[in-house]
């Protein structure tokens, strides 16, 4: 084994000590054993095969693999090592089963599986597997829970992971972007620091690369990418699913935030052929929230990423296709089915379209040196664990007075030495939930600066100070801040609708229902009025934050996404 191969093998080896929350400690849920009756019922959906020791059932990089239930013998789950060998890290014994979340989609799987000894298994292909989940709810519950926990285990132990080599000084914005992309898409990643780890430097040297080339991604099977785009990472790791070009979906949902995922869950569960197109990762803007505490049914709160991850799995369980990262650049709506053109040159055809592209935070205008530090080099538009780690022991600034800003400030205050919140208004009461206002007021690690605005950022290669001014007194204050979080206002993501005749308001938000101006007298509408969420084009709907007049709350977006499906059915019934 070469030095580089040894480093790669060691870098991906799971830690021996497991934390109390590690899914691998919960073996009865993560690696459950079905009872004899459940095995018999599940096996009836597929075929039973006797296989000799060493039979490869699936390998990393395969797509659309089968589900295996062990009747006799055992199945070894392994990672391929750089030296050509394998490392077994899980064994499924009698009455246990293979698989994790990638069994619900057509991404490349992360690990391999083989017969450890001669044995007998029940094999279910994807169609048979879905019939099992639909027909046997008790078995489906066990499988769903196990699959979710197994993916968490792969992430925590960096099994089947990509290695990302970065630096604290070079390519920081790109490194953060790639970390966010992989984390939000639930892909295991091991991050190495070329400035602190000799192993990272050796990995680069083995590819003829240096510190100046970072971030560098080692994607397995010999694939090494220098400063890749999100799309390049998705292609190299098999995250990107190929969407059929000759198929007409019943409904295409554009946007994978709470509204879009809710629409996908209800549409797919009601038998509609559904595809979801998301630009980066499931969750949208809500997916970057560290904790949502006022969402119904989660009294202790839930992170936006966790909520989105569960919704994605739920939609896929019912058969929805999730196309991420896929950016829609143009919508053809002069004829039906509608055609959505994607940024990679492909397209998706659908009989109905749900616009759920949400909104993004505004940038700061007129701030000195803003462009130099925007895009992850000190200026951030999300406050996740990745960004929080950058603030450890340092001051941070959050700009904005909405719930997202309040959640970010509370979360960051656990890591930063102090958090400053800047708002242009006199208080937070008008735009932030009372529970967050109270939490901010009670914290001695958060200071609210009202009627204030950022005027200048300072630093050389990286931002190291922020100056803001009180709009009433004119007094300026400069603090040593390396991370600025912007959560201001909302700009709708509707550029791709230009030229399609979908009516928007003066702010660019999509108008629906009576606002949209459709009329039964117009031949386009075939004698009916637009439904509640229908735009000025029949069969094109808008829900969530992108809709004019929406309340910009996760629960409201989920409600709209769920409710719009009944109107979709009505349109599809028209033919």
TrEMBL record:
- Which key words are in the record? Flavoprotein, Oxidoreductase
Q: Where are the transmembrane segments?
A: none
Q: Please report the organism this UniProt entry assigns to the protein.
A: Salinarimonas soli
- GO molecular function terms listed in the Swiss-Prot or TrEMBL record: oxidoreductase activity
Protein's recorded name: Thioredoxin reductase
Renumbered to this chain, the signal peptide range is none
Pfam families the record matches: cNMP_binding, Pyr_redox_2
Matches recorded under InterPro entries: cNMP-bd_dom (IPR000595), cNMP-bd_dom_sf (IPR018490), FAD/NAD-bd_sf (IPR036188), FAD/NAD-binding_dom (IPR023753), Ferredoxin-NADP_redctase_2 (IPR050097), RmlC-like_jellyroll (IPR014710)
Q: Which domain of life is it from?
A: Bacteria
Q: Which residues form the Cyclic nucleotide-binding domain?
A: 30-150
């Amino acid at each position: 084994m070469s030095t580089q191969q040894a480093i790669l093998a060691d870098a991906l080896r799971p830690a021996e000590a497991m934390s109390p929350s590690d899914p691998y400690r919960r073996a009865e849920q993560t690696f459950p054993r079905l009872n004899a009756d459940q095995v018999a019922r599940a096996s009836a959906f597929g075929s039973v095969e006797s296989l000799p020791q060493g039979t490869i059932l699936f390998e990393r990089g395969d797509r659309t693999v089968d589900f295996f239930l062990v009747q006799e013998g055992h199945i070894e789950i392994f990672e391929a090592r750089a030296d050509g060998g394998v490392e077994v890290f899980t064994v499924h014994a009698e009455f246990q089963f293979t698989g994790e979340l990638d069994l619900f989609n057509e991404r490349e799987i992360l690990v391999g599986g083989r017969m450890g000894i001669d044995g007998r298994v029940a094999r279910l292909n994807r169609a048979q597997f879905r019939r099992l989940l639909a027909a046997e709810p008790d078995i489906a519950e066990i499988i769903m829970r196990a699959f979710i926990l197994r993916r968490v285990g792969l992430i925590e132990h960096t099994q089947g992971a990509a290695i990302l080599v970065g630096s604290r000084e070079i390519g920081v914005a790109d490194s953060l972007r790639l970390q966010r992309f992989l984390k939000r898409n639930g892909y295991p990643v091991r991050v190495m620091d070329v400035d602190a780890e000799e192993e990272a430097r050796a990995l680069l040297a083995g590819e003829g690369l240096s510190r100046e080339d970072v971030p560098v991604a080692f994607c397995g099977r010999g694939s090494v990418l220098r400063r890749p785009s999100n799309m390049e990472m998705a292609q190299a790791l098999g995250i990107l699913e190929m969407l059929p070009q000759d198929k007409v979906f019943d409904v295409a949902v554009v946007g994978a935030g709470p509204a879009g995922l809710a629409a996908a869950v209800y549409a797919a569960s009601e038998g509609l052929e559904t595809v979801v197109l998301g630009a980066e990762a499931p969750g949208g803007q809500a997916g970057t929230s560290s904790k949502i505490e006022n969402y119904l049914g989660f009294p202790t709160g839930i992170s936006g990423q966790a909520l989105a991850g569960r919704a994605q799995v739920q939609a896929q369980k019912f058969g929805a296709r999730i196309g991420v990262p896929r950016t829609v650049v143009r919508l053809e709506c002069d004829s039906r089915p509608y055609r959505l053109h994607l940024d990679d040159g492909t397209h998706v055809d659908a009989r109905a379209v749900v616009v759920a592209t949400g909104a993004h935070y505004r940038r700061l205008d007129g701030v000195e040196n803003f462009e130099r530090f925007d895009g992850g080099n000190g200026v951030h538009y999300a406050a996740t664990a990745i960004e929080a780690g950058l603030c450890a022991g340092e001051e941070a600034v959050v700009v904005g007075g909405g719930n997202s800003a309040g959640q970010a400030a509370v979360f960051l205050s656990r890591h930063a030495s102090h958090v400053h919140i800047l708002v242009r208004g006199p208080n937070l009461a008008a735009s932030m939930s009372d529970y967050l206002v109270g939490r901010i007021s009670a914290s001695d690690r958060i200071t609210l600066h009202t009627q204030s605005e950022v005027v200048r950022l300072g630093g050389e290669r990286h931002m190291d100070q922020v100056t803001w001014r009180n709009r009433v007194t004119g007094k300026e204050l400069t603090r040593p801040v390396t991370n600025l979080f912007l959560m201001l206002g909302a700009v709708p993501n509707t550029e791709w609708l230009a030229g399609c005749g979908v009516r928007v308001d003066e702010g660019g938000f999509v108008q629906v229902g009576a606002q949209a101006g459709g009329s039964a007298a117009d031949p386009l509408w075939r004698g009916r009025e637009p439904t509640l969420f229908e735009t000025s084009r029949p069969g094109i709907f808008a829900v969530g934050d992108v809709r004019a007049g929406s309340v910009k709350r996760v629960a409201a977006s989920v409600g709209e996404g769920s409710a719009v499906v009944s109107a979709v059915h009505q349109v599809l019934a028209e033919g």
